[in-house]
Design brief:
Length: about 110
């Protein structure tokens, strides 16, 4: 039996992509200004893209591109490790359940 070596591919999320993840999470904590946006638009995706575009000073097209790139990265990754900022300065791994929750979050806004 031949032993196969697994290679880990590193991906980095941009500041825009991290901001987008935070905004998606904010929609679920029912911030009044975001809840009103979801209710006023036809889809959660359009509400997210509009809000993201406004908050980050991007065009709607650039917001969509950022979302699509984030979606691709999250769906392709098998293992996620995050670095906590100062003062913690340590690395933590997301569990399979946490990674799946991140995928569900991204899928909800697809």
């Amino acid at each position: 039996m031949e032993l196969k070596q697994k290679m880990l591919t590193t991906i980095e999320l941009s500041g825009r992509e991290l901001g987008l993840i935070k905004l998606m999470a904010d929609f679920f904590v029912e911030k009044p200004e975001l809840t009103a946006k979801i209710e006023s638009y036809t889809t959660a995706h359009y509400a997210l893209m509009s809000t993201y575009s406004e908050n980050f000073g991007l065009s709607i097209e650039d917001a969509w591109k950022t979302f699509e790139e984030l979606e691709r990265k999250i769906n392709e990754v098998k293992y996620v490790q995050v670095e906590a900022p100062y003062p913690l300065k340590r690395w933590s791994s997301l569990s399979d359940e946490e990674l799946n929750m991140l995928r569900v979050l991204v899928d909800y806004f697809s």
